[in-house]
Design goal:
- This protein is of the alpha+beta class and 644 residues long.
- 40% of the residues lie in helices and 27% in strands.
- It contains 18 helices and 24 strands.
- The strands form 5 sheets. The chain has a 7-stranded antiparallel beta sheet, sandwiched between helices. It has a 5-stranded antiparallel beta sheet with strand order 2-1-5-4-3, sandwiched between helices. Strands 7-6-10-9-8 form a 5-stranded antiparallel beta sheet, with helices on both faces.
- Helix 15 packs antiparallel against helix 16.
- The protein starts with a helix and ends with a helix.
- The protein binds adenosine-5'-diphosphate.
- The site of adenosine-5'-diphosphate has 20 residues, from helix 15 and helix 16.
- Adenosine-5'-diphosphate binds next to helix 15 and helix 16.
């Protein structure tokens, strides 16, 4: 070995010791001659290594590595990629290395130089990257990344399929904006992305455009800004977005179904209510229900509401006169008892004071497992039906009373007629007696005929078969004729009849016979329901376009609660036993209907029992005839008729 050569070898060793890469020099027995600091740190060699064999330091080296070393020693340059260096109880290291022979001073191969690169960290990064890639590629969501100028550099396979892109190259040629519909772009670029930039992330429901079909895909577009590790500057954006077209359609269908259901419910003429909780704390329903309960659409109409101020808590419910607790109501019972509750009639008292009759039934709502999760109720307002039933019962009762009364009223005149007939048949000597008997029989017969006529009139009016023979009538004449019909009664009862005629002559269009009947009835009642020696007043005057006729007495009067019903057919106010006056409860009903047929109204007033009564008839005035003399009605009547 000459000096030059040995110094060259020394130089090589020195170079290797200071090389900035991992390199080591071995002799033919693979003993260390030199190693760079990087080699020592990569292979974690802390012990003195000079002259020690590589295989002694690393007994775990594989036969394959040793074979390669041998090949290098025989002159080849060999490489090993991804060589795994097992380490005791620690993760293996990965090395790429190249071994090449070095030539000694004698021209022969003196050993090998091994250049090595620790690829463990790079492999880890690659492995992580591969993992992320496979995650991204296997995801069914749209995963994409773009740079800060919105040029995509990654779109996963599912994403490309979703929007109809054929390749990553095509995706990379397509700016982010193009993924959206033109009308959405402005908001996206001017508002959404700046927000992502500010806040680091953002989420929006927006449509992606399918590049092939042009169809809209509703996406939940979640975007994150990508920051450069070193500068923390935004280098682009990443998105993991989900196709929610189906969910949106389902949501839309649900909303539409709900709207349809609400429309059907609101069109239903019955109250529909439902609760979606098992304690029925919140109850809502359709328009008819809110109308029934005088509530607003947002009110909680639950009688079981925990909030004492809730509208439902202000309602009260009664059944057969007993107030019900909320748990006894059909909806609450249906949920608690988990069964249908059949229709029950309830009386509802509203906070406004209005009371109405409801027929309500309830049923539970179950979920798909059959568990009761709430309830529904149907509430029908049956107030009218109840009223009709009551009216029917009332009418039936009155009919029975009427039949009894009629029998009685018919028998009264029949008894004297029978007596007269019997007496006459036996032969009466005295012609005066005969005359008296016949006159009595005629009077009773007339009474019978009047009764039957009135009944027939009522029947005719009820079936609409009465026809008025209307003509222009001087009201004073009509009233005069009516007075004639009751003069006898007034006189025999010893009443004073006081007339207060109109100052001007009044004309009405009417049926004379019928109007005489109306005023005759009112005057007859005044005479009848006033104890002997009373006072009957008859006043008539003009009020606007009406003639107003008042028949007033100071008789037994009418209890205010009865004032409206005395005009009902067959209604009579009960008097003390023995005091009941004759009558069948038809006169006022007849008078009212006749007045109404003339386009007028009749009204009764009384301050109460014993306070007298007043009946007021209003009739429309006839249009003035030309050349009519406006002489006062009083002038048309005989002075003697004014005061008796
Ligand atoms: P009737 O007199 O045959 O009973 P109406 O129909 O004429 O039948 O009258 C109905 C009821 O109204 C009477 O039964 C009576 O109780 C009451 N009534 C009518 N007129 C008067 C009056 N002037 N004063 C007090 N009560 C009256």
């Amino acid at each position: 070995m000459n000096n030059d050569n040995s110094s060259a070898q020394e130089q090589l060793r020195a170079t290797i010791n200071h090389a900035p890469v991992a390199v080591a020099m071995f002799d033919r027995q693979m003993r260390y001659m030199a190693a760079s600091a990087r080699w020592l740190s990569d292979y974690e060699i802390a012990v003195p290594f000079h002259g020690r064999a590589q295989y002694e330091l690393f007994p775990q080296l594989t036969e394959q590595a040793k074979a390669l070393h041998r090949r290098a020693l025989s002159g080849e340059t060999v490489s090993q990629i991804d060589d795994c260096l097992e380490r005791n109880r620690r993760a293996a290291k990965w090395m790429d290395w190249t071994a090449q022979p070095w030539i000694g001073s004698d021209g022969a191969i003196g050993g090998v130089l091994i250049w090595s690169e620790d690829t463990t960290a790079r492999r880890r990064v690659k492995r992580d990257r591969d993992l992320f890639m496979s995650l991204a590629q296997s995801s069914l969501d749209f995963i994409g990344m773009c740079d800060a100028s919105f040029k995509p550099f990654f779109v996963n396979a599912a994403g490309m399929r979703m929007v109809g892109l054929d390749s990553l190259e095509e995706a990379m040629r397509t700016p982010v904006e193009a993924f959206f519909f033109p009308e959405d772009r402005d908001c996206l670029m001017t508002q959404f992305f700046p927000r992502v930039l500010r806040e680091g992330h953002g989420e929006i429901e927006i449509r992606f455009r399918h590049f092939r079909t042009g169809e809209a895909l509703w996406m939940n577009y979640a975007v994150y800004s990508l920051a450069e590790v070193a500068s923390a500057k935004t280098s682009g954006y990443a998105t993991v977005s989900r196709n929610i077209t189906r969910q949106r359609q389902a949501r839309q269908q649900l909303v539409e179904a709900q709207r349809r259901l609400q429309a059907i419910m609101d069109a239903a003429p019955v109250g529909l209510s439902y609760s979606e909780d098992r304690s029925c704390e919140r109850v809502t329903g359709n328009a008819a229900l809110f109308a029934q309960f005088e509530a607003d659409r947002n009110d909680n109409v639950s009688a079981s509401a925990t909030d004492a101020q809730a509208v439902g808590r202000q309602m009260r419910f009664f059944r057969q006169g007993r107030e019900l607790a909320d748990r006894e109501l059909p909806l609450q019972r249906a949920v608690a008892e988990q069964r249908e509750i059949g229709p029950m009639e309830l009386e509802v008292a509203l906070p406004s004071g209005r009371r109405w009759w409801a027929e309500a039934s309830g049923a539970p709502i179950r979920d798909e497992r059959g568990e009761v999760v709430g309830g529904v109720a149907v509430t029908v307002d049956v107030t009218e039906r109840r009223r009709a039933q009551d009216a029917l019962r009332d009418a039936d009762r009155r009919k029975n009373e009427f039949l009894a009364m009629l029998a009685h009223e018919l028998r009264n005149p029949l008894a004297p007629i029978c007596y007269g007939a019997h007496t006459l048949s036996k032969g009466v000597k005295n012609p005066q007696d005969t005359q008296r008997l016949v006159a009595m029989m005629e009077r009773q017969l007339a009474h019978l005929v009047r009764l039957v006529d009135e009944l027939l009139d009522v029947a005719r009016i009820s079936s609409g078969r009465i026809e008025l023979k209307k003509q222009r009538l001087a009201l004073a004449d009509v009233i005069g004729q009516a007075i004639e019909t009751i003069e006898n009664r007034i006189q025999s009862a010893g009443h004073a009849l006081i007339l207060a005629p109109s100052r001007e002559q009044l004309f009405v269009d009417g049926d004379c016979v019928r109007l005489v009947q109306v005023f005759g009835n009112l005057l007859a009642n005044a005479a009848k329901y006033t104890d002997p020696g009373g006072r009957v007043e008859l006043l008539w005057a003009r009020e606007g376009n009406s003639a107003v006729v008042t028949v007033r007495d100071n008789g037994i009067g009418v209890e205010p609660s009865m004032l409206a019903s005395i005009f009902d057919l067959f209604t009579r106010v009960k008097e003390d036993i023995g005091k009941q006056r004759e009558g069948i409860g038809v006169g006022l009903a007849l008078a009212k209907r006749l007045v109404e047929l003339h386009g007028g109204q009749v009204e009764a007033r009384s301050a109460g029992l014993g306070q007298g009564a007043e009946f007021i008839v209003r009739l429309p005035l006839a249009a003035p005839a030309s050349g009519q003399d406006p002489a006062p009605d009083g002038a048309a009547m005989e002075a003697g008729a004014l005061r008796r």
